[in-house]
Structure formats: structure tokens, C-alpha cells
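Dock G3D; give full complex structure.
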Amino acid sequence: MYTLLSGLYKYVFQKDEYCILILGLDNAGKTTFLEQSKTRFSKNYKGMSLSKITTTVVGTVDVGKARLVFWDLGGQEELQSLWDKYYAECHGVIYVIDSTDEERLSESKRAFEKMVTSEALDGVPILVLANKQDVETCLSIPDIKTAFSDCTAKIGRRDCLTQACSALTGKGVREGIEWMVKCVVRNVHRPPRRRDIT
Ligand code: G3D
């Protein structure tokens, strides 16, 4: 009886919480993506004035029984050295690329490569967002995949998806988040934390 009631309590009042890191170079659109996700998945969220957005932002989004807790860690070079402090604790990574910035594409690839070869991230699903696809002159998905092609072996057998996206208009945001939820829920190697719904 106790087991039944405790199971019912958990079902009604608790969520499975997953920590998702949002990484990428500065100016890639990480914070805009986080704001867009909150707007799309939270009924009463009206969005934050872009001028109030700071470097390390945390936000939550509920998708069914899953709660995603996002950490937007900032992409400036001096902040990149802090990324790996969060790897052991996270359940998924969203890596944002500015598809309009061909000049910094190789810099972005180097940061991605360093991230993906970290042992602490083994088996963690990675969503690569080719952002700013609303800009007519942007790099296409095949262009970006080609530029990142020598990272393929390092990605290994983990779940990885490259998704076209515009954090500004919201295109591709829902698809990306829903894919991430599916991946973190089925990844038995990193079980969620249970949290009471507040
Ligand atoms: P960051 O958090 O990765 O540093 P931001 O990046 O979210 O602060 O975005 C950097 C700039 O890119 C912002 O412009 C923002 O509006 C713009 N941006 C973000 N996503 C998109 C997108 O999908 N399309 C377009 N066209 N622009 C985008 P400003 O001018 O405020 O610096």
C-alpha cells in the first residue's frame, strides 16, 4: 500500500530533472535560444528584455514529466575553461553555432572538439544547433557538417543531432528540445534527479 501511494505521489507531485548545458562561442545565440525555449514551453512566461540577459543564465522548461534545467555558461574564451566543471553533472549538451559567422567557424569547431573529447561527457547526448538560419546568407547545414566532419569519430555512438534553428524566430526550437528530452529520458547511464514540483 505504501509503495502504491508513494508511486502515486511521485507521479503527481514530482518531475524527473535533467541538467542541460548550453555551450558555444559568445554571440552564437545561446541566451536567445534559452529565452525562446522558455517562451515556447512555459504557458505564463512572457520573455525577458534582452538588455537584462546576463552571461550565466539558468532557466527551466517542463516537457511532460521531464524538467530541463538549462545552464547557459557563456562562450567567451576565459569562460570556456569553466565548461568542463559542469560535465560530470549534466545530462545533455546543446551546442550553438552561429551559421552567419564563417570567420569564427573553425574557432567554434575547436571548442566543440575539445568539449566532445572530454571523458566526463561520455555518452551524453549532444544537440548541435545551426542557429541564425533566418539570415539569407547563412551557412547551410551541409556546409556546417562538412566543416565539423573530422569531429564525427569523436562524437562516437552517443545521440547527436544537427538541427537548423533560428532562436530569434523560434524555428527549430521545439523540435530540438523535444529531441533532447527523448534522448535524456532513454539514457540509462545518467538517471535524472527527482524533484517535487514547485
Ligand atoms: P550568446 O548568448 O551566445 O552570446 P545572444 O548570444 O543570445 O546574446 O545573441 C547574440 C546576438 O545574436 C544578438 O544580437 C541576438 O539577437 C542575435 N541572434 C541570436 N539568435 C539569432 C537568430 O536566430 N537569428 C538572428 N538573425 N540573430 C540572432 P544583438 O544585436 O543583440 O547583439
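Observed: Strands lie at 14-23, 57-63, 66-72, 92-98, 126-131, 160-164, 193-196.
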